[in-house]
Amino acid sequence: MIDLTLKRLLSCVGFLLLQILLLNNIKFLGFVTPYLYVYFILLLPSSVSKEMTLLWGFLLGLAMDIFCDTLGCNAFATTFVAFLKPYFQNLFGPKDDFDDMKPSIERFGFNMFIQYVAYLVLIHHLMFFLIEAFTLSAFWYALLKAICCSMFTLLLILCFEYFKTRRR
Amino acid sequence: MRTLILFLLRFKTLFLFLGLELISFWLIVNNNQFQRNHFLSSSNVIVGSVYNLSDKVYKYFSLASVNASLAKENESLNTELVQLREQLAFYRQDVSYAGRRYHSVQNNYSFITAKVIHFSAVNQKNYFTINKGENDDVRVGMGVVNEKGVVGIVNSTSSHFASVIPIVNTSSNTSATIKGKTHLGQLIWKGKDFRYATLEEVPLYIPIASGDSVVTSGYSSTFPEGIMVGKVHSFTERNDNFYNITVDLAVDFGQLSYVDVIRFQYTDERVALEKRKGNGDD
Questions:
Q1: Cα–Cα dist B220/A85, whole Å
Q2: What is the complex's ipTM, to 2 decimals?
Q3: What is the CATH architecture assignment of B65-277?
Q4: A54 to B12: CB separation less than 8 angstroms, yes or no
Q5: Which chain B residues have any C-beta within 8 angstroms of a chain A C-beta?
Q6: pLDDT per residue over B240-260, tens digit each?
């Protein structure tokens, strides 16, 4: 149990460092930045309770905020995604229930997994950009930005999934 | 209590979610300058209107003290005005009658601000009462003005109050003159309308026009020279070579609230002198 938590914490820090040190520096076309760190939340297995998912999301977002000087914005968006994640997992995940199901292309099937990831990532990004702009009048710009960044993030997530399946 | 706890446990995920989002929101608003400004400015409409309303109410309640301070300011400004006017008159005299000096005309008048606390406005013999008396150096015979012009003369005093005969009293008799002329007239009130008084004993050979200012003469110590009484409203020529001038009074006696009592520094001296010679002006 402790071993598992430690492992999860390490991967959390790994995603965080990857995001902060590498991905945040990408400004494709001036504004397209992948926010891959949310992938960590999407990967949490179904054995993790909803409350724990929320806490993970909040802490991960808060850590991001502290590094990015956007105190609260990432935490808000990530907590929101962490709240939705179990429901989306039930919606798109395999119906034959396992005790400990890790979301992946293998488990979900390509179509379902893409939808699962795309929706949550889009919601996260949209949430983040709206909170950052802090006004609904910038909604269409935020939506455009969210869609572009989501596509980038999605691409990276698919790469990760590809390497994961290759390694097996 | 049990049901409450059960209820909380049942929705613990939701509450945790809401709690975390609230914390995030709090962090956003508290720590990010941009969002804070935006948040505050968007709620400004409400805050602003509330403050506006309370300000209106407060203003209403503070009217009394505002009035008092304005009256005080008026008092000092009036004092200054009269002093300057006298200085000006003094220097003019100096130019025209070199050698004939009246050294003591400067700083001879000062003002005591008082509030009208009672005004009987129904009778022919109107009086009003002010809240300053002998303790405040108000004496019988002193002139009373406000920012518009002449109001009346102090009739009797107690230690804290004074009774004033306004110029709208049938027994009031004040000397006044048309501005720019030197001929004295007697201002009386015939007991009809607070807005008008009558100026008599102005001889017919003086050219006057309606709209001319009627001011105090300065021949008595009651009022300094040149204080506004009113404007000539209309006039008729009488058979005995005098005008009958209706004066549109400057002071609105329907709305009398703060007045200034004029104190002349050397009243006693002047009165004593005039008595001794037996030819006082009044």
A1: 98
A2: 0.79
A3: Beta Barrel (2.40)
A4: no
A5: 12-13, 16-17, 20-21, 23-32, 34-35, 38-39
A6: 888 889 999 888 887 788 888
